[in-house]
Write a structure and sequence with these properties.
With about 100 residues, the protein is an all-alpha fold. The protein has 3 helices and no strands.
Length: about 100
């Protein structure tokens, strides 16, 4: 008889990435197209599609965050399943907790 497999472990992954937006208009167009193609039941939402598009056009950080595909972080890693996450973007330098320690 073999031992049962160990129970799965739930881990949190924390990371920070710095990006440079070289073409804000292209980013906004990408985010808007992605929103239009999304399978969203708009009558069930607080906003309608046009309002959501206007909000995206007014917020480059929201455009960038909406374009991120978090599940690719573990794509192809054996024995790991993506369960969900949160991604956001901010202007400026990294927040204090995300600075690497100084030697």
């Amino acid at each position: 008889m073999t031992d049962p497999p160990p129970p799965p472990l739930t881990l949190q992954v924390y990371c920070r990435a710095e990006v440079v937006v070289t073409d804000p208009e292209a980013l906004v167009a990408y985010a808007v197209a992605d929103l239009r193609d999304a399978d969203i039941d708009w009558p069930q939402e607080e906003d309608d599609l046009d309002t959501a598009v206007q909000e995206l056009r007014a917020d480059i950080t929201a455009c960038l965050a909406s374009a991120m595909d978090l599940n690719v972080i573990v794509e192809g890693v054996p024995g790991v399943e993506f369960r969900g996450g949160l991604c956001w973007a901010e202007f400026g330098p990294a927040r204090e907790p995300f600075h690497p320690p100084t030697p």
